[in-house]
Amino acid sequence: MLNYFINFKNQLINSCIINRIDRKVKKRIINIKDPNLRIGYKYFENYFSKDELSYLNEYFDHRNFFSNETIRLFEFVEKNFYGYIESYLGENAKLYSINFNTIQPNSKNKFDISASWHNDNLGNNLKVYICLEGYGDCPTGVVPNQNTKNYYPNIFFNLRFLGKISQKFKKDEIDLKYKTGDCAIFDTISPHRGKYEKIKNNKRRCIIINFLDIEKIEKLGFLEYPKFLFMKNTKPPFRKILPKNFTKKNNDIVTKIKKFKFFDERFLVEDDENISYLWT
Ligand SMILES: [Fe+2]
Question: Do the beta carbons of residue 235 and residue 7 sit within 8 Å?
Answer without folding.
Answer: yes
